[in-house]
Specification:
This protein has about 190 residues and is an alpha/beta fold. Helices cover about 30% and strands about 15% of the residues. Helix 1 (about 1-10) packs parallel to helix 4. It is extended. About 10% of the residues are buried.
Length: about 190
Protein backbone atom coordinates (compact mmCIF):
# COMPACT_ATOMS: atom_id res chain seq x y z
CA UNK A 1 0.00 0.00 0.00
CA UNK A 2 2.81 2.43 0.84
CA UNK A 3 4.41 2.07 -2.58
CA UNK A 4 1.13 2.93 -4.28
CA UNK A 5 0.69 5.86 -1.89
CA UNK A 6 4.19 7.14 -2.74
CA UNK A 7 3.57 6.84 -6.46
CA UNK A 8 0.24 8.67 -6.17
CA UNK A 9 1.80 11.42 -3.99
CA UNK A 10 4.69 11.86 -6.42
CA UNK A 11 2.24 12.16 -9.29
CA UNK A 12 0.05 14.59 -7.32
CA UNK A 13 2.98 16.87 -6.40
CA UNK A 14 4.13 17.00 -10.05
CA UNK A 15 7.04 14.54 -9.96
CA UNK A 16 8.72 13.89 -13.31
CA UNK A 17 9.36 10.20 -12.69
CA UNK A 18 9.33 7.51 -10.00
CA UNK A 19 11.87 4.78 -9.36
CA UNK A 20 12.38 1.77 -7.09
CA UNK A 21 15.47 -0.25 -6.28
CA UNK A 22 15.00 -4.01 -5.76
CA UNK A 23 11.34 -3.63 -4.81
CA UNK A 24 9.25 -6.30 -3.12
CA UNK A 25 5.59 -5.47 -3.53
CA UNK A 26 2.14 -6.78 -4.33
CA UNK A 27 1.14 -5.32 -7.72
CA UNK A 28 -2.59 -5.47 -6.92
CA UNK A 29 -2.11 -3.49 -3.68
CA UNK A 30 -0.01 -0.88 -5.49
CA UNK A 31 -2.65 -0.49 -8.21
CA UNK A 32 -5.41 -0.17 -5.59
CA UNK A 33 -3.48 2.49 -3.65
CA UNK A 34 -2.48 4.49 -6.74
CA UNK A 35 -5.92 5.77 -7.63
CA UNK A 36 -4.38 8.39 -9.95
CA UNK A 37 -3.05 5.62 -12.22
CA UNK A 38 0.29 7.45 -12.41
CA UNK A 39 1.88 4.80 -14.65
CA UNK A 40 -0.15 6.15 -17.58
CA UNK A 41 1.43 9.63 -17.41
CA UNK A 42 4.60 9.40 -15.31
CA UNK A 43 7.60 7.17 -16.13
CA UNK A 44 8.21 4.42 -13.55
CA UNK A 45 11.69 2.85 -13.41
CA UNK A 46 12.75 -0.28 -11.54
CA UNK A 47 16.41 -1.03 -10.84
CA UNK A 48 17.69 -4.33 -9.47
CA UNK A 49 20.54 -2.72 -7.51
CA UNK A 50 22.08 0.60 -6.50
CA UNK A 51 24.78 0.08 -9.16
CA UNK A 52 22.13 0.05 -11.91
CA UNK A 53 20.52 3.32 -10.76
CA UNK A 54 20.63 5.91 -13.55
CA UNK A 55 19.37 9.44 -13.02
CA UNK A 56 19.10 12.28 -15.54
CA UNK A 57 22.27 14.38 -16.01
CA UNK A 58 22.51 17.07 -13.33
CA UNK A 59 19.99 15.35 -11.05
CA UNK A 60 21.03 15.13 -7.38
CA UNK A 61 20.14 12.05 -5.35
CA UNK A 62 18.68 12.97 -1.96
CA UNK A 63 18.30 10.24 0.64
CA UNK A 64 15.83 10.43 3.52
CA UNK A 65 17.22 8.78 6.64
CA UNK A 66 17.44 9.40 10.37
CA UNK A 67 21.18 9.78 10.91
CA UNK A 68 23.12 12.18 13.12
CA UNK A 69 24.78 13.74 10.05
CA UNK A 70 21.53 14.23 8.08
CA UNK A 71 20.31 17.77 7.42
CA UNK A 72 17.00 18.61 9.08
CA UNK A 73 14.41 19.00 6.31
CA UNK A 74 13.30 22.54 7.30
CA UNK A 75 16.95 23.69 6.84
CA UNK A 76 17.54 21.89 3.53
CA UNK A 77 17.74 23.76 0.21
CA UNK A 78 16.21 21.39 -2.36
CA UNK A 79 18.24 21.13 -5.57
CA UNK A 80 16.38 22.27 -8.69
CA UNK A 81 16.79 18.80 -10.21
CA UNK A 82 16.53 16.10 -7.56
CA UNK A 83 15.44 12.51 -7.09
CA UNK A 84 14.49 11.41 -3.59
CA UNK A 85 15.03 7.95 -2.19
CA UNK A 86 13.42 6.58 0.97
CA UNK A 87 14.22 3.34 2.74
CA UNK A 88 11.89 0.38 3.06
CA UNK A 89 9.01 0.44 5.57
CA UNK A 90 10.82 -1.53 8.24
CA UNK A 91 14.40 -0.67 7.43
CA UNK A 92 16.90 1.95 6.42
CA UNK A 93 18.77 3.06 3.34
CA UNK A 94 21.67 0.68 2.81
CA UNK A 95 25.17 2.05 3.45
CA UNK A 96 25.81 1.62 -0.30
CA UNK A 97 22.76 3.73 -1.17
CA UNK A 98 23.63 6.38 1.42
CA UNK A 99 27.08 6.62 -0.15
CA UNK A 100 25.50 7.17 -3.58
CA UNK A 101 23.42 10.10 -2.26
CA UNK A 102 24.51 13.69 -2.79
CA UNK A 103 22.55 14.75 0.32
CA UNK A 104 20.92 12.98 3.28
CA UNK A 105 17.98 14.70 4.98
CA UNK A 106 15.84 13.79 7.96
CA UNK A 107 12.35 14.77 8.96
CA UNK A 108 12.61 16.09 12.53
CA UNK A 109 10.13 13.98 14.51
CA UNK A 110 10.04 12.07 17.79
CA UNK A 111 9.83 8.75 15.92
CA UNK A 112 9.51 7.45 12.39
CA UNK A 113 6.30 7.62 10.38
CA UNK A 114 5.49 5.20 7.59
CA UNK A 115 7.31 5.62 4.30
CA UNK A 116 4.23 6.84 2.43
CA UNK A 117 3.69 9.67 4.91
CA UNK A 118 7.42 10.53 4.94
CA UNK A 119 7.40 10.82 1.14
CA UNK A 120 4.38 13.13 1.17
CA UNK A 121 5.99 15.35 3.84
CA UNK A 122 9.17 15.53 1.76
CA UNK A 123 7.36 16.49 -1.44
CA UNK A 124 5.22 19.07 0.36
CA UNK A 125 8.37 20.64 1.84
CA UNK A 126 9.91 20.84 -1.64
CA UNK A 127 6.75 22.48 -2.98
CA UNK A 128 6.57 25.21 -0.34
CA UNK A 129 10.35 25.81 -0.26
CA UNK A 130 10.37 27.18 -3.80
CA UNK A 131 8.36 30.21 -2.68
CA UNK A 132 5.60 30.18 -5.24
CA UNK A 133 3.06 31.00 -2.57
CA UNK A 134 2.43 34.14 -0.52
CA UNK A 135 4.21 34.38 2.83
CA UNK A 136 2.27 33.14 5.83
CA UNK A 137 0.52 35.87 7.79
CA UNK A 138 2.04 37.10 11.05
CA UNK A 139 -0.86 35.76 13.12
CA UNK A 140 -3.70 33.30 12.56
CA UNK A 141 -6.41 35.92 11.97
CA UNK A 142 -4.53 37.82 9.29
CA UNK A 143 -5.10 37.09 5.62
CA UNK A 144 -2.11 36.09 3.50
CA UNK A 145 -0.82 38.84 1.24
CA UNK A 146 -1.10 37.91 -2.44
CA UNK A 147 2.03 37.39 -4.43
CA UNK A 148 3.02 40.42 -6.50
CA UNK A 149 2.14 40.09 -10.17
CA UNK A 150 4.97 38.63 -12.21
CA UNK A 151 6.69 41.17 -14.45
CA UNK A 152 8.34 39.77 -17.52
CA UNK A 153 11.19 41.61 -19.20
CA UNK A 154 11.20 42.62 -22.83
CA UNK A 155 12.08 40.30 -25.66
CA UNK A 156 15.80 39.79 -26.18
CA UNK A 157 16.91 39.14 -29.73
CA UNK A 158 20.37 37.81 -30.49
CA UNK A 159 20.78 40.24 -33.39
CA UNK A 160 20.17 43.25 -31.13
CA UNK A 161 22.51 41.82 -28.50
CA UNK A 162 25.25 41.32 -31.14
CA UNK A 163 24.77 44.85 -32.51
CA UNK A 164 25.00 46.31 -29.01
CA UNK A 165 28.21 44.36 -28.38
CA UNK A 166 29.72 45.60 -31.66
CA UNK A 167 28.83 49.20 -30.80
CA UNK A 168 30.40 48.83 -27.36
CA UNK A 169 33.56 47.38 -28.91
CA UNK A 170 33.77 50.29 -31.38
CA UNK A 171 33.35 52.78 -28.57
CA UNK A 172 36.25 51.16 -26.68
CA UNK A 173 38.56 51.22 -29.71
CA UNK A 174 38.15 54.92 -30.33
CA UNK A 175 34.95 54.86 -32.32
CA UNK A 176 36.64 55.31 -35.72
CA UNK A 177 34.71 52.44 -37.18
CA UNK A 178 37.84 51.18 -39.00
CA UNK A 179 39.60 48.02 -38.00
CA UNK A 180 43.11 48.56 -36.76
CA UNK A 181 45.84 46.61 -38.45
CA UNK A 182 47.84 44.30 -36.24
CA UNK A 183 51.47 43.29 -36.64
CA UNK A 184 50.46 39.70 -37.22
CA UNK A 185 48.45 40.41 -40.36
CA UNK A 186 49.93 39.43 -43.70
CA UNK A 187 51.15 42.25 -45.92
CA UNK A 188 51.45 42.46 -49.66
CA UNK A 189 55.20 42.50 -50.50
Amino acid sequence: MNLGNLIRSTHSFGGSFFFTIAPVFNARQVKNADTSDAAKTMPLYTYDSVDELMLPRGCSLVGVELTDEAIALPSFRHPAAAAYVLGPERGSLSPELQEACDHIVKIPMKFCVNVGTAGAILMYDRLISYGRFPARPVHSRAAPEPLPEHVQGGQVLRKKRREAAEQAQQAQSGGSGQAERSDTECSDD
